[in-house]
Amino acid sequence: MTERVFSIAKSVLAVAVLLSLASAGGVLGYLRQPRELRFEPPVAADLDWFRLMSNGIGGTPPESYFALGKPYEADAYNLSQGKRLYAWFGCGTCHGDGRGGVGPSFLDGWWLYGPEMVSIVASIRDGRPHGMPAFRDRLTIEQIWQLAGYVQTIGSYSPKVAAPSRNDDKQTRPAENRGPAIILFDEGPVGVHPDQGPSP
Amino acid sequence: MTSRNAGALRDTAFDAAEIDRRLAAIWSTTPGVWGALATVDHKVIGRRYITTAFVFLALGGLLSLLMRLQLAQPEARFIGPDRYNQLFTMHGTNMMFLFAVPVMQAMAVYLVPLMVGTRNIAFPRLNAFSYWMYLAGGLLLWIAFVLDTGPDVGWFAYVPLSGPQYAAGKRADIWAQMITFTEVSALAVAVEIVVTVFKHRAPGMSLDRIPLFVWSMLVTSFVVILAMPAIMVASTALILDRLVETHFFNPAEGGDVLLWQHLFWFFGHPEVYIIFLPAVGMVSTIVATFTRRPVFGYLAMVMALIATGILAFGLWVHHMFVAGLPRLGESFFTASSMAIAVPAGLQIFCWLATIWAGRPIFTTPFLFAIGFIVTFVIGGLTGVMVASVPFDTQVHDTYFVVAHFHYVLVGGAVFPLLGALYYWFPKLTGRLMSETRGRWVFGLIFVGFNLTFFPMHILGLQGMPRRIYTYQPEMPWSGLNMFISLSAVILAGGFLLFFIDVIRSARTGAVASSNPWEASTLEWATSSPPPPYNFARLPVVGGLDPLSDRRDVLPVAAGLRVDRRELLVSSIVEATPEAREASSGDSIWPLLAAIATTATLIWSIFTPWAVVWGSIPIAIALIGWFWPKGVPEDES
Q: What whole-number distance in Å separates Cα of residue B496 and Cα of residue B280?
């Protein structure tokens, strides 16, 4: 009798494992999937109302951003849209493939205004001193958030699960899902950053 | 015999009742859940396979109804574009990879060992493994879809759309990995079928006495073995491109986008024949039984099967006519596409000659066979039309193509399959399906099908593209679309009645005798449903129709052991007995191996390290599976 109970328990376990494996795959996929193609206009407009510290570094996103589940940092669709915007709006002309050029690099571990989403969104929307133009008239606020999420993804030290993969282009650096910032980060002596600007 | 075996118990020592008792003790599946998970009985696994495949058919049918609901009116708001993309991708993927191919192989898993007169399929544990892999792949796809992560790149997932740049997230990876699951299971079954047919045939069943269904499954299995590796290579290359930045399909780094199309269709076109050839075998069996005579032109039928199997590999490029290929290539593949109409036509005429010369009995299976001939000929005619480059260029990616392939796939495979289910249902369950309901089912499905899909030809010629989630009211398509959607309700009603009939007949149908149709092939020589050991004594075959040649007596072979699972190994051509061989017993290891493989495959969507770490549990499971049993090897 105990043997029979034992064997039933084993079988239930086996089926449970099979089911949970399959659903784990689905759930993990889902974590980076939900695809909100277009927010309600008031929700989208609210994305503009984040608050920034007085020195322009760091701040608080709008409450609604948390209610939405922080879609622009961990969502595959938004990140890949951000990657497209990065190409379409010529970000690469100054920032290269993320390693910088005329503009600062995103992969060297140094964020001039901090790595927070609101800082990056503010940089793109309002521009920054020493050459960063404002894009508020060229991109909608949703697109700016998408682009900011992507920029944060390039420079992140643990590659996000939802990070996009390579493009069908010449390969110049590892793709975002391979964690280029870990691979390419130069630990060597960090020079002064004269390009920081006066404040900071 | 050697002295080592002198003490072994042979069936010559006992009377019939005692043999049954001892064989049942040694071959039966242990009752309970554990026994159900460990079983390697080809009949249990075959039934499971068939049931699962029909569940997927029902689910895929529901998806098509959702699409028809959306397309019934212009500018409908029922389903958004993103969901619609998932719907048509899931419908195609589900029907091709989770229904059509597995269900045909499942019928073979159940029937081929019975039809060649053996006690179990070759490599029974591999058979159990293949079912669990298939189930896991199906669950992966459907659970992902329910969670809004279903693939959305079309069932043939062309790059660059499905590549790393344009298919965000894991949707395309889930599609590609589901391919790996189903192809592993399909390849496993194909190998088992080939070995069963070549080495486990009943004594005397020489190559020219093999039933046509078995021939068709043999050819199909070879096509599977040759075609499926192409898609596994392709889908693996796609996952590598997406996950670890290989450049198989990246033209900027020397890859080739067209490579995907070649690899896919090198599998994808034979796939059509993987689905169609078993149906040919089913129709041949049904026609022979219900015209009360052997199929006209056995040799011609077999040659046509083999010719189709070979030609299937020579025409994949006709799916790529608009991809911009060299003129010579297009001409060659136009010619080869038309050439395959020759063996198909030969088969049609052989069936017509059989019906002409016989005394047809119009039962439900036979009606489905007739429905198959009519529908498939229409699909074949439009096939010859789209085989010509200028015509194909005009209708490519329109509803004309949708109509064409539903005519050949539903007409060419689903009709015979439903007929085959009505025909073999007594052998599967021991009960007959309802003839009255069966006629209604046939009528509703045949009429509903033609009303649904014939107008799609016209829609296609009017320019309606496939895979659009809605269309504007200015387009001249809305009337026909509404008509199609309403007709789809008739078709769905037919299938609903079919499923009701299956469930009710399985519970309360008339109890079937061992040979209710007075058919002539070996599966009808044993009881309905067969005992776990299939045949108490293995039959000896003296002709093409072993049961009709000498209906009163069927010669049998004696001398097999009754104290272990034992079956006969016979020679390929003449099927003379060569050895007695042990058949493996129940084991849980196939399920554990399938679980380990499932974990690795799903994990590897997310990180390449899964292949490294996942290989450890797989290795453990395989070691357990192949652990030496301490019994001597088989004796000749």
A: 25
CA distance A148 to A142: 10
Which of B294, B433, B431, B430 has its CA nearest to residue B363?
B433
Kindly report each contact of residues B576-579 with a partner whose C-beta sits within 8 Å and lies 24 or more positions away, as own/partner: B576/B203, B577/B203, B578/B636, B579/B634, B579/B635, B579/B636
A contacts of B241 (beta carbons < 8 Å): 165-166
- The closest alpha carbon to B459, from B438, B433, B482, B480, belongs to B480
Confidence band of B262 (pLDDT split at 50, 70, 90): very high
Q: Does B34 touch chain A (CB under 8 A)?
A: yes
CA angle B144, B147, B151 (to 5 degrees): 45
In a domain, A193, yes or no: no
pLDDT band at B3 (very low <50, low <70, confident <90, very high): very low
**Predicted confidence band of residue B420 (pLDDT cuts 50, 70, 90):** very high
Angle between helix B478-508 and B435-461 (nearest 10): 160
Q: Which of B81, B168, B251 sits opposite A77 (nearest CB)?
A: B168
We report the CATH number of the domain holding residue A163 as: 1.10.760.10
Q: Hey, is A56 helix, strand or coil?
A: coil
Q: With 70 as the cut, is the pLDDT of residue B564 above it?
A: yes
Residues A4/B32, Cβ–Cβ less than 8 Å: yes
* Number of domains chain A contains: 1
3-class SS of residue B582: strand
Q: Name beta bridge partners: B431.
A: B511
Q: Residue B577: enclosing H or E segment and its boundaries?
A: strand B577-582
Q: In terms of Cα–Cα distance, which of B33, B43, B152 is closest to B91?
A: B152
Flag whether A56 is in a domain: yes
Burial class (CB in 10 A: 0-12, 13-18, 19+), B507: exposed
d(C-alpha B283, C-alpha B57), whole Å: 20
**Cα(B397)–Cα(B427) distance, integer angstroms:** 42
Tokens of B526: 């044993």
Of A22, A29, A35, the CB nearest to B82: A35
ipTM score here? 0.84
pLDDT band at B71 (very low <50, low <70, confident <90, very high): very high
> All domains of chain B, ordered by start, with CATH?
38-626 (1.20.210.10)
CB burial of residue B226 (10 Å; 0-12, 13-18, 19+): middle
Neighboring chain B residues of A8 at a CB cutoff of 8 Å: 32-34
Number of H helices, E strands in chain A: 9, 2
Question: Could you tell me the sign of the dihedral formed by the alpha carbons of B219, B225, B228, B234, in that order?
Answer: negative
Q: How many beta-carbon contacts under 8 Å exist across A and B? A: 140
pLDDT, tens digit (0-9, with 9 covering 90-100), for B188-206 = 999 999 999 999 999 999 9
Is position A9 within any domain?
A: no
Q: Which of B163, B245, B606 faces A161 most closely, judged by CB atoms?
A: B606
Q: Among candidates B438, B451, B440, which has minimal Cα distance to B410? A: B451
Which comes out higher in pLDDT, residue B2 or A37? A37
H/E stretch holding B448 reads helix B435-461
Cis peptide before A115 (omega within 30 of 0): no
Q: Is residue A15 part of a domain?
A: no
Decide: A124 and A144 in contact? Cβ < 8 Å.
yes
Interface of B with A in 513-572 (CB under 8 A): none
Domain span at residue A121 reads 40-186
β-pair partners for B539: B556
Q: How far apart are CA B392 and CA B321, in angstroms?
A: 7
Q: Is the CB of residue B500 less than 8 Å from the CB of residue B526?
A: no
| Coil, strand or helix at B561 | strand
Q: Exposure pattern of B539-560 as b/e (b: 16+ CB <10 Å)? A: bbbeebbbbbeeeeebebbeeb
